[in-house]
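Feature request, filed as a ticket because there's no other form

It would be nice if the structure record came with a short human-readable summary line next to the tokens. Right now we just get the raw output. Example of a typical job, pasted below so the devs can see what we mean:
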Amino acid sequence: VAENGIFEVSKNKYSKCYRFQDINYTTATEDEQIGIFERYCKFLNSLDCNYKITINNKNKNMDELRDKVLIAEKNDGFNNYRSIYNDIIEEKIIEGRQGIEQERYLTITIERKNFEEAKAQFATLEATIHKAFIELGAEIVPLNGNERLKVLYDYYHLGDEGSFDFDIKKAKKVGADFRNDLCNGMVKYFPDHFEDESKFCKALFIKKYPSSLSDRFINEITSLPVHSITSIDVVPVPKDLTTKVLQKKYLGIESDIIKQQRVRNKNNDFSSDISHIKKVQKEKIVNLMDDVRENDQNLFYTGVNFLIMAEDKKELDSVTETIKNIGNGRMCQIETHYYQQREAMNTILPVGNRQISTMRTMLTRDIAALLPFNVQELNEKSGVCYGINQVSHNLCIGNRKKLANGNGMVFGVPGSGKSYFSKSEMLQVFLGTDDDIICIDPTLEYFDIAEALGNQAAIINLSTYTKNYINPLEMDVWALDLNDSQGYIRDKGEFMLGLCEQCYGDNLNSRHKSIIDRCVRKLYIDIAKAREKHIPTMSEFYELLLEQPEEEAKDIALSLELFVNGSLNIFNNHTNVNVQARFIVYGTRDLGKELGAISTLVMLENISARIAENAKKGRATWLYIDEFHTVLDREYSAKFLFSLWKKVRKQGGLCTGITQNLVDMLQNYTAMTMLGNSEFIALLKQSNVDSQKLSTAAGIPEAQLKYVDNSPSGTGIIKYGNTCIPFDNRMEKEANPLYALFNTNLHEKALQTKQE
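Raw output as currently delivered:
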């Protein structure tokens, strides 16, 4: 066994194993399934060596899973919320497949003179394999030596997978044999099953196949909630040999027909036709020859084997009966490997060795019907629970920090559960990490969460009457230097250009921009020179503008007057709210049209500074913008957000836009570009679904969109990188404090208050 994953399974025979992802086959439309089927056929035809496809229903350590997905307690006073969340996650764990985790492998075996030649051949084959799986939409990665041994160890030591401690590199140094660490202590073989310390096992195979096999057959067996390994062994037959074998078979049938006719003629029977059996045999062989010649069908020797595991003999017999019944329902005869249990086990494990010969000939399309694909899963470490997969009922756990970028979008018509979805993610991030969360809330519906989080949260309700102030010129003035080496003054100058343009109500010309930049630089450089540092306000900037000799400066000052000395002067004050809290909600509902645009700019500038500050501390910042379309309607705030969406990844920021119909955003170029830069998309119920437009815009296959067309509230699709999951994130309403906290339905809230 080599460190790079190549095993020598017998003299001059080498194998290598690859793990590949599942793809959404079950949820695809018929046309898409045909496309997947054809691409899979093409892949099967491209391999000219022995290979094995394995579906491993391995043991899932439920304690380890709970450690991974349940939120750990902290001494911060919020363990009551963690407990409620953990109860919900526990219910969803029980709903899914208990103790089963599915992995898929492709094991290739080749014959070469030595290890180096085998290594070179595998490198050549990998290019073909990767190309084929990219076309299928599945990621495939080679397993190194230790990973391959771990797969075998997990089988031999079912229930004790965590104790694997073997390293090929270290073992080479001391001359240790991997088999000592790999194998279990005892295996006892019987004619129809075998036992070891932890389990009872039985090896089965398909003895008789129907004339056509359903593409759901393998899925039906591998979806059973039992520990099992399903193996499809394939040996390609060269094309020239295939033609010779078929011609020989055809000539044999022709010869039998002639003999049969002679016997009948001898008996003076000249009118009767050839027997039905021979007629059928001849038709079949003619069709086979046509398929091989014209339809790009290759011939293969194929064997399908199953290794099932159970805690006792009674359970083993019960599972065997279930599998045989599934086979009978599909016209397949499944039998036990009598007196060949050890050989069958060694064949079924993804080692690359074949010790049994229960094979039959199949064409490409027949093997392709044994598709190893079902539905994609989302199972990341240290992530957020987004409910369960609607198809497999397994937990959907996603960690947006592991994506190429953590930016996301949440779409859903009013009442579809988008606020609940976002609040659930926010609270899980707050309870499970040390990250900061900032929310721009135009409807004041996130205030409930902020109030529930007490002194860890801050509510900043921006309006002319609340006396919550944010200073747009706030900066770390103690970090300033005369050369502006950190670029703080330059960034603030760019922001002030946007703010003044918004107040001015028209595009600024180059003279205006020069004056604004001059005033900003003078304002902060004077502070940098001064011994006693102070934070400037808009009044100081206004005074500087009035001191400038140009007429344009007076125009800019006049446009700012309403917001500095007039009735809308809420940004001409020092900041008096806690902008350093872990959870901040900016309420913007009560801002008028004039203040709305400026407030958005000031908030985004403040948030951008906070993200940059957190980046220096190594802390992530989650930004949520509800009613996202209102921000995009204003040109400068849309530009500011657009640049934030692009650069925020490097600063550990994760931006999320929350809005209603995705179709509404299709008209906005900026929005579409931002959608393209978002690796996470949650699509809840959509009205007037235009499948083609939605599919093109969000990169979600059309077949999946049935999960958002008139779907129940709280269900939909998550696009996580290249993975698409139909999810169900509904929560029990009765006696659930979290549901009451997240709920935005006015009628339900009123009823709840009345009952209380």
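Something like this underneath would help us a lot:
The radius of gyration is 34 Å.
The mean pLDDT is 85.
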